[in-house]
Amino acid sequence: MTIVSIKNELSSAQRAHYAVPLFDVYEMQGMEGLMEALTEKRAPTIVGIYSPYAALPNCRALAAYVRCRAEATDVPVSLMLDHGASVELCLKVLEYGFTDVMYDGSSLPLDENIANTRRVVQAAHAVGAAVEAELGHVGFGDQYEAEGGKGIGFTEPDNVQHFVEATGVDFLAIAFGNAHGLYKGEPHLDLELVAEIRRRVDLPLVMHGGTGLSDQQFRSAIAAGISKINYATAIVNASAENMCQAAAKPESSMFDIYDGIRLAYSEWCSRLFDTFGTAGQV
Known about the structure:
There is one protein chain. The chain is of the alpha/beta class. It has a single domain (7-276), classed as Aldolase class I (TIM Barrel, Alpha-Beta Barrel). It contains 11 helices and 8 strands. It has an 8-stranded parallel beta barrel, surrounded by 9 helices. Helix 2 runs parallel beside helix 11. The longest helix has 23 residues, at 254-276. The chain is globular, with a radius of gyration of 18 Å.
């Protein structure tokens, strides 16, 4: 299947109350493990390339590889820029064939975030790509006790409708107690805030920062209105652990070590497709 924008799949997820995951990949082995999982589970999927890696010279080649592998399945697959750090990078990856982009202006003043997001939306829509933006600011897990755990950076519901109408954005990432990376302290999600934002706007809502949450927390977030979940840290850590274990064995070859990445992606993505309700949605 030719790679497609995830917009229609996220609309379906919003209506049917499941979530489509974004999994960041960095090289071929991770993509191969993800392909195994999405093909077996018949689950629509977003392949993410994280902003610092999208800025590297090999990004065009990696994007071409992802697009080529997506043609080997009839499951909908999207290629999305994750946390686009600038308008310019968002525009560049559209030239590489990305089907969707996230522009992250969450650390900017609201007016500047709106203006930059609008520029990305206009360019992306012109080529059939969809755009995610972030309102509020999803911080990092190692700062959770000082920030996210105290409600700092949470999305303000009163700003949501204005932001969506002013930008024309297709999906919205929100901050409600979630955090990137490993949580320092116990994560608490403000699901009432999610539900309130869901009442204010009719577009797919996105959660970043899933590592460390329980299956029930994911399901509750989806029930409250989340339709897309970005997940990375646990998969990356499992990949590294697999590689270290293989490298410690004298009989292991380079191929055995690299295969640890594929195994981590295949196992974790399969499990999360079940948890998020994505499995069998094709």
